[in-house]
Amino acid sequence: MRKPFLCGNWKMNTNRAGAVALAAATAKTAGRIQAVEVGVCPPACYLEAVLAAAKGTALVVGGQNMHTDVGGAFTGEIAGPMLKDLGCTYVILGHSERRHVFGETDEFISKKVHAAFQFGLRPILCVGEKLEERQARETEAVVRRHVTRGFAGLSKEQAGQVVIAYEPVWAIGTGLTATPQQAQEVHAFIRAMLALLYDAALAQQVRIQYGGSVKPDNTRDLLAQPDIDGALVGGASLKADGFATIIAEGAKGKGL
Length: 256
Ligand code: PGA
Known about the structure:
about 15% strand; globular
């Protein structure tokens, strides 16, 4: 069975003291609910403090982004080996804010996915359509493009290590959540694509998180869907109590 994975994406929020307190509280929750994997992706400047708070606990930590290169003249960027050196397990790649606010292309994101594997990090690859794309019935075409290009050139072994986060852009930070049925449809579509790109066993292995206004009161129904294996949680992961409820509700949704 795929172990559910609930991960907080803190984006550009909190401060050092807040980050440490939130990490410590979330680590306690992770220790209490071991049937699910629990992670947080803090701002890069607080990674070290968060990793110290997570040390020796079940909480895993990831970066929110990284550059494709090993190092060099890229002012303001962070390289994979730096995230690895700090002790990160995961790195979020291709988040819609990176795609649509910072203009990252599928090709650039694909290079990052390969770089993540080169440096021993597991990518959380974000995919998802904008509102106008959903309205134009282009959801499958957009998701197909994000997944195909995001997985381009990956071996089966690498593909099995990728976590996909389906995050419809219209649901991110808007309070509008995809219904469990809407999300399940796209998750099943992604899994069917993975079966075509690789094989059925690989498709069954890959974890697909849902993201976009996940809250304590909608998590259980989302995770009760057969192809929803977790959540990437933005705003609601910034409050320790709320995120603890989300983790507990996620476990319940999976019958754990
Ligand atoms: P949200 O963000 O939960 O605040 O909608 C999710 C994300 O962008 O990963």
